[in-house]
Amino acid sequence: MPTSSLVLKGPSLHTRAMPLVHIDIRKGHSPEYKRAILHGVHGALIEAFKIPDDDRQQILREHAPEDFEGRGTAPTVVSITAFSGRSREAKRALFAAIARNLAASPGIDGNDLIITVDDLPLDNWGIRGGKQALDLDLGFKVDV
Asked: Could you state, in order of their start, the residue ranges of all structural domains in the chain?
């Protein structure tokens, strides 16, 4: 492994803090529809960013139609905040995997979808009781 690789080891399910996913949709969808979105985004993160399956930090927010203007019939915004280190290729793969997964289930048209990734350096994350992530051994690789 190159010396520049960031390999982070050891957190339990309850102490992981990466990545943080916020998903915004219009109100009125079934619980199954919402679960499909959460599952599809998480599956794409596992595939493209190589995160552990149990590293799940997702918030789905619903908005009244009059409070959420967007493209298409099912505007969906996926905002991901992650540790810096992912390559352009990994981000391209993530965008494609999210679009593919959400098209398959629950049937969101790719033109209704906006995905953003906000990379924050490890020193901008306070986790595990306020410790700087840069100083911790987190249990996974971020330079994929």
From this structure: 20-135
